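Quick one:
INPUT:
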């Protein structure tokens, strides 16, 4: 990184504070004392959290960091993840508790108690064994959001097969490269799932992918939609093979460092990386963070994370974290606007969801659709609401708090990555006085800091690179099959520190604000300006729902700020006029200072996003600099770039 990126400007000032509700603070799972206790004895603290799990053999050492950056946690310990997520709750008398309230997009529903889940996982485990899958083998999973997806993951974990879940929206080619990279022996899929009111086929994509994947021996297919599928010799139906299995299976223990899963990152910055997570440390941290950050009370809460299990958020906070804690969760198959734009709020009302976890991209979409939609539903069961995936703009936070959380629920903005495996920086809902837009502090047991380009912590009020300073239990162990890339990608920018790729600042109180990816930072007249702050300033205009900004080469200022803006539904007709663009530019200048005033603003109907909903700014940079658009293979909707390019002729600069 060039020297000019050694610090990042801190432009946005935010004075709103939301203290925790008294009732929540009084009964909180985790209180302020945990920070000090963890800081005094970090490894002792994590050992205590590992004791939330059931181990068949206790570990000898909490951490082996003798060969950095290759960590081993709970060395010598043994446990079974599926036993911890399912069987032990049944043994403890909670077999009748609902594990999943599953809601299909067409309106069909299924309830799985922990006792049901135990039987289903046992049958699936026996079926995997019959199909020749053994401990250490890899299994690719390409499925819609149906109960057989977590069941398959748990069955793999139970027998010690390493799963690689590939998001159901990926192409045959993307699936094939992921199957090949892991040399998967089995693929588990479905005929299809329901999306946007219709069956959406998956099996044809698998058929195409496995034409040239020599490692694949069998394809196990769940019937979900009943649409006709081509049948090949390698195919076996779930209802033929799994249903007839014995519904008991004895879980064998696995080493704490046994590979649990491989998962590819979202691909916002480029080629996805196959991140490897292991067993004991991973489950320890996902269980602890789910308990701490969401204040989960398993007897009374109904928890819903709206992510897709194809992403890490779904792995950690739909499957492993909630189940390890014995939670009751909602799982939903479809899209938020099928059959109507109130579907999610209807689900919250129906199941009396008390904890809700979603992404800024969804929140901004709901802002765009209008306040009147959630207002039609009873959301009074909610008590904690969370956000993950991108920086949450202060205005989106405040909208979420007000229109979904009834100005009562704390918002937890959780920063983490596929690589970190679990939440790292977040408010604690019973402790933290939240600031809209801030991820606040590293969780107890986590050491993170914002540093300058010499790895020196920046003072309060300063911005720079977000680094992790100590190993953590759910950290990635490597990039699958590529230790060298692991070292180079994450551990070589700063000696001894993990560098996450994100920019951040510490405010006057030392609280952390994420500022977007350092690759996206704009250098304007010698100032490093973060995309996040300018986007947040735009979103704070009452007529703006969503914004993305990039730096484009400029003869005068080095780089100039170019903004792409989606207006709110309520914004009215004249959002394309020159007056409105001028108003927006002045609004940014007024909010952040003249240095941050965009040179150019384009009103667009959509923004380019990854399949996990993150804005891909590098493609917008290509547009802003009149280049042909770069690699779009991880883009969710390839037509979006055409829609934006069509806007270009009108994209002249003002002033
Ligand atoms: P790739 O690494 O392939 O480019 P990706 O980084 O988008 O893909 P993920 O691991 O899904 O893949 O996303 C992690 C990133 O998401 C973080 O590095 C950060 O940029 C962003 N992020 C996640 N949560 C937050 C948050 N609460 N605030 C700000 N940014 C967040
Ligand atoms: Mg990343």
């Amino acid at each position: 990184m060039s020297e000019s990126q050694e610090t990042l400007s801190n432009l946005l000032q935010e004075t709103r504070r939301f203290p925790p509700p008294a009732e929540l603070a009084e009964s909180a799972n985790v209180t302020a004392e945990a920070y000090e206790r963890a800081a005094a004895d970090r490894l002792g603290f994590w050992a205590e959290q590992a004791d939330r799990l059931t181990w068949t053999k206790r570990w000898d050492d909490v951490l082996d960091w003798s060969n950095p950056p290759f960590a081993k946690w709970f060395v010598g310990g043994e446990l079974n993840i599926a036993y911890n997520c399912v069987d032990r709750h049944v043994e403890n008398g909670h077999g009748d508790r609902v594990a999943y309230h599953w809601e299909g997009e067409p309106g069909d529903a299924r309830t799985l108690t922990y006792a049901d889940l135990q039987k289903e996982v046992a049958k699936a485990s026996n079926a995997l064994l019959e199909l020749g899958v053994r401990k250490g083998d890899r299994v690719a999973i390409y499925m819609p959001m149906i109960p057989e997806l977590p069941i398959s993951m748990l069955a793999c974990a139970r027998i010690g097969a390493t799963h690689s879940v590939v998001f159901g929206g990926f192409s045959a080619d993307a699936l094939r490269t992921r199957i090949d990279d892991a040399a998967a022996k089995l693929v588990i899929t479905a005929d299809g799932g329901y999306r946007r009111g219709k069956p959406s086929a998956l099996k044809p994509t698998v058929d195409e992918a496995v034409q040239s994947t020599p490692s694949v021996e069998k394809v196990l297919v769940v019937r979900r939609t009943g649409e006709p599928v081509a049948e090949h010799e390698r195919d076996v139906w779930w209802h033929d093979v799994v249903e007839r299995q014995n519904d008991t299976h004895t879980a064998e223990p696995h080493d704490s460092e046994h590979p649990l899963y491989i998962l590819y990152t979202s691909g916002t910055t480029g080629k996805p990386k196959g991140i490897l997570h292991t067993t004991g440390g991973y489950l320890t941290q996902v269980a602890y963070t789910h308990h701490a950050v969401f204040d989960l009370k398993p007897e009374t809460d109904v928890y819903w994370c709206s992510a897709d299990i194809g992403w890490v958020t779904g792995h950690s906070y739909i499957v492993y974290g909630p189940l390890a804690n014995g939670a009751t969760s909602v799982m939903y198959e479809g899209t938020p606007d099928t059959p109507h734009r109130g579907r999610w709020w209807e689900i919250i009302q129906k199941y009396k969801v008390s904890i809700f976890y979603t992404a800024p991209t969804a929140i901004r979409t709901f802002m765009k659709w209008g306040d009147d939609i959630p207002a039609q539903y009873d959301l009074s069961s909610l008590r904690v609401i969370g956000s993950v995936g991108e920086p949450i703009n202060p205005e989106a936070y405040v909208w979420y708090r007000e229109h979904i959380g009834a100005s009562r629920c704390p918002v937890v903005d959780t920063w983490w990555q596929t690589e970190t495996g679990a939440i790292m920086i977040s408010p604690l809902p019973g402790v933290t006085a939240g600031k809209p837009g801030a991820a606040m502090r590293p969780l107890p047991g986590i050491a993170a800091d914002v540093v300058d380009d010499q790895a020196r912590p920046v003072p309060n009020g300063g911005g720079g690179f977000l680094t992790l300073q100590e190993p953590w239990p759910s950290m990635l162990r490597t990039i699958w099959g590529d230790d060298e890339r692991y070292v180079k990608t994450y551990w070589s920018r700063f000696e001894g520190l993990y560098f996450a790729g994100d920019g951040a600042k510490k405010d006057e109180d030392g609280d952390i604000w994420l500022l977007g990816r350092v690759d996206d930072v704009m250098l304007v007249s010698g100032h490093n300006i973060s995309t996040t702050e300018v986007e947040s300033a735009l979103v704070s205009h009452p007529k703006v729902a969503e914004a993305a900004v990039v730096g484009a080469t400029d003869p005068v200022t080095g780089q100039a700020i170019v903004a792409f803006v989606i207006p709110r539904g309520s914004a009215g007709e004249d959002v394309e006029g020159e007056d409105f663009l001028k108003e927006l530019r002045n609004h940014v200048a007024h909010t952040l200072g003249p240095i941050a005033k965009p040179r150019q603003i384009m009103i667009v109907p959509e923004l380019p996003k990854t399949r996990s909903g993150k804005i891909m700014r590098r493609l917008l940079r290509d547009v802003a600099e009149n280049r042909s658009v770069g690699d779009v293979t991880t883009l969710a909707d390839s037509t979006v770039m055409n829609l934006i390019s069509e806007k270009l002729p009108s994209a002249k600069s003002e002033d």
